[in-house]
Design brief:
Distance between the termini: 46 Å
CATH topology of the largest domain: serine acetyltransferase, domain 1
Order of helices and strands: HHHHHHHHHEEEEEEEEEEEEEEEH
Helix content: 40-55%
Number of domains: 2
Oligomer: single chain
C-alpha cells in the first residue's frame, strides 16, 4: 500500500475501500474495465463518482447527462451532508444486506442505493427552491429505478432498501436514521388533504416487504412492521405490528430491528 492509499484510507475509508475493490474487479474481469474506470477510478472522490452515476441514470432525451452531472456536482459541493449520508447508506447496505459483500456493489449495481442518492440531490434542489429540477429528478428516478420518493420528503442517513422495487415515499413523510425497508413499501397519505398527511418513521425501524403505512401516523423508534401489513395507527417504540389492519403482536425482538433484518414473528 502506498502512502497516498494509506492516507486516503484514514481520511475516507469507504471511498478507499471502493477504489481497492475497483482494481480487484478489473484484475478478475478485464471486460469490466471500462465500467469500473468510468464509475470509480476516473474520480477523485465518492461525491464525483456519485454525480457521474446519478447523471448516467437520470439523463434522457429531455436533459443530457452533462447537465444532470453539473447539477449533481453543484449539490455535492454545496452540502457535505449529501456525501456523509451516502457513505452511511453504503455502510448500512454492506452491514445488513446479505448479498452485499463489498462497498463498491451499491455504487455499481444496487438501484435502491442509487435511487436514494438521486433523491438526496432532488431534496437539496427542493430546499433551494429549484422545484422543477427536483420534480424532474423524481420523475426520472421513478421511471428508471421504479422507486418514487417525493423530493420534499425527509429521509435520514443509513437507509437500506433491500431489492428496492415499487417503493413509494410521499411528500410529507419523514424517515429516521438507520431504517431498513424491503420492496413494495408505501409511506402514503389518505384522502385529498394537502397538509401533513404522510407517516413519520422513527430511527432503527424495519419495514417488511409490502408494508403499507398510511396517513400522518408515527412508527416508534426500533419497531418492526411485518410484511404485508397495513398500518393505520401510531405504533409504540420497540414493538412488532402485523396484520390488516396492523395490531401490536409483541416486542420488537431486539434492540435494532433494522440491523438484524429479522422478519419472523417470533419475538
Amino acid at each position: 500500500m502506498t502512502q497516498a492509499q494509506a492516507k486516503l484510507g484514514r481520511l475516507d475509508p469507504v471511498w478507499a475501500a471502493i477504489r481497492v475493490e475497483a482494481q480487484a474487479i478489473i484484475e478478475a474481469e478485464p471486460a469490466m474495465a471500462g465500467v469500473v474506470y468510468g464509475a470509480v477510478l476516473h474520480h477523485k472522490s465518492l461525491e464525483s463518482a456519485l454525480a457521474y452515476r446519478i447523471s448516467q441514470k437520470l439523463a434522457s432525451g429531455d436533459m443530457t447527462e452533462s447537465v444532470v452531472n453539473e447539477v449533481c456536482v453543484e449539490a455535492y459541493a454545496a452540502d457535505s451532508r449529501l456525501g456523509v449520508a451516502a457513505r452511511a447508506d453504503i455502510v448500512a447496505t454492506l452491514d445488513r444486506d446479505p448479498v452485499c459483500h463489498r462497498s463498491i456493489q451499491p455504487l455499481l449495481y444496487f438501484k435502491g442505493f442509487l435511487a436514494v442518492q438521486a433523491y438526496r440531490v432532488a431534496h437539496w434542489l427542493w430546499l433551494q427552491g429549484r422545484k422543477d429540477m427536483a420534480y424532474f429528478a423524481q420523475m426520472r428516478s421513478s421511471e428508471v429505478f421504479g422507486i418514487d420518493i417525493h423530493p420534499a420528503a425527509v429521509v435520514g442517513k443509513g437507509l437500506m432498501i433491500d431489492h428496492a422495487h415499487s417503493i413509494v415515499i410521499g411528500e410529507t413523510a419523514v424517515v429516521g436514521d438507520n431504517v431498513s425497508m424491503l420492496h413494495a413499501v408505501t409511506l402514503g397519505g389518505t384522502g385529498k388533504d394537502d397538509e401533513d398527511r404522510h407517516p413519520k418513521i422513527g430511527d432503527g425501524v424495519l419495514l417488511g416487504a409490502g408494508a403499507k403505512i398510511l396517513g400522518n401516523i408515527h412508527i416508534g423508534h426500533c419497531s418492526r412492521v411485518a410484511a404485508g401489513s397495513v398500518v393505520l395507527r401510531d405504533v409504540p417504540p420497540c414493538k412488532t405490528v402485523a396484520g390488516v389492519p396492523a395490531k401490536v403482536v409483541g416486542e420488537a425482538g431486539c434492540d435494532q430491528p433494522s440491523n438484524e433484518m429479522d422478519q419472523l414473528l417470533n419475538g
